[in-house]
Amino acid sequence: MKGNNISSMKDQNQLAQAHQSILHLQNTISQAQSHPNNQVIEQIENSLERAEQSLAQAEQITDNQQAIDLARQELEQQKQAYQEIQSRTID
After folding, report:
1. Is residue 4 scored above 60 in pLDDT?
2. Which superkingdom heads the taxonomic lineage of this protein's source (predicted)?
3. How many C-beta atoms lie closer than 10 Å to residue 36's C-beta?
């Protein structure tokens, strides 16, 4: 069923949702880089969880592996940025 137009629209919508989740995570991480505090760290953790779930859903319904790979790379970059923030706030 992935080949019909409705499924294609669902694929694109799920990919767009995953991308939006990753962008939200990126914005929250940027905020934490300039103003790290416990509330922002908690927001990052929530955003990270949502982004991972959204991407996992997109992976299940789309055939666009290139878009999935790009989103996965973006998510991994944000995870690394988050780890850097964590290591700075622990020190």
Report:
1. no
2. Bacteria
3. 15
Question: How many angstroms separate the CA atoms of 81 and 32, rounded?
Answer: 10
What is the spatial distance between Cα 21 and Cα 33, in angstroms, rounded to a whole number?
Answer: 18
Q: How many CA atoms lie within 13 A of 27 on its CB side?
A: 8
> What's the residue count for the chain?
91
User: What pTM value is reported for the model?
Assistant: 0.84
Count helices and strands (H / E) in the chain: 3, 0
| Mean pLDDT, rounded, of the chain | 88
pLDDT score recorded for residue 62:
86
Confidence of residue 24 (pLDDT cuts 50, 70, 90): very high
Half-sphere exposure of 42 (CA within 13 A, CB side): 3
